[in-house]
């Protein structure tokens, strides 16, 4: 079996989003088990670490073309390699970031993104104090230079961390310049053509869940 074959989704199935969200959890936990010296890992073991049902884990892993041995489980090194390739974490996806404020600046300084396959190669802002400088080695250009920079860099992803009022306008600019996927951190529900991928991400949505559960536990 070639490596290329291993990373193909079985039968070209479209992988459900919840599965795609859980697979990185399994990956992190399998890496942890490797650090502890494990050579094989079963769905039951991953289940213990992640608190996710073992049958759900087996089902999720069935989208990834890897087979385990009865009773022994999956070979840890192979599972890590196959999961990383399947999730696209081994390829580097280059991105531009718009809006180097408190959130955008933090993302530019996050070395973790690269481990998950995302490399922000340049950023754009309109603040004269930022334009022409760099952060964590990443150059910051004026937003007006975006189209020109699209010709210089091979980029398909745009990270959106601008004020909410201009979220749509910047999105339109990005798409007309050739961006194919937008990682949207603004709370604005941006509208895009059908062929453009949008991923909305909010730290605050998770906070609300935590507060709600905390209150629930306090009054139990
Ligand atoms: N998803 C989340 O969890 C989360 C967390 C924090 C903030 N946010 C959102 O992210 C966005 C940024 O928040 P922040 O706190 O970093 O704001 P901020 O005010 O610190 O930063 C915004 C930056 O955008 C720049 N900007 C303004 N016009 C621009 C343009 N035309 N082109 C490029 N850059 C431009 C500003 O100069 C500034 O540097 C907001 O929409 C906010 O609601 C989301």
UniProtKB/TrEMBL annotation:
NAD(+) binds at residues 99-104. It is found in: Cytoplasm. Keywords: Cytoplasm, DNA-binding, NAD, Repressor, Transcription, Transcription regulation. It comes from the Bacteria. The keyword NAD applies. Residues 88-189 form the CoA-binding domain. Modulates transcription in response to changes in cellular NADH/NAD(+) redox state. Belongs to the transcriptional regulatory Rex family. The keyword Transcription regulation applies. This is Redox-sensing transcriptional repressor Rex. GO terms for cellular component: cytoplasm. Homodimer. It comes from Jilunia laotingensis. SUPFAM superfamilies: NAD(P)-binding Rossmann-fold domains (SSF51735), Winged helix' DNA-binding domain (SSF46785). InterPro entries: CoA-bd, NAD(P)-bd_dom_sf, Rex_DNA-bd_C_dom, Tscrpt_rep_Rex, WH-like_DNA-bd_sf, WH_DNA-bd_sf. The gene is rex. GO terms for molecular function: DNA binding; DNA-binding transcription factor activity. Residues 25-64 bind DNA. One of its GO terms (biological process) is negative regulation of DNA-templated transcription.
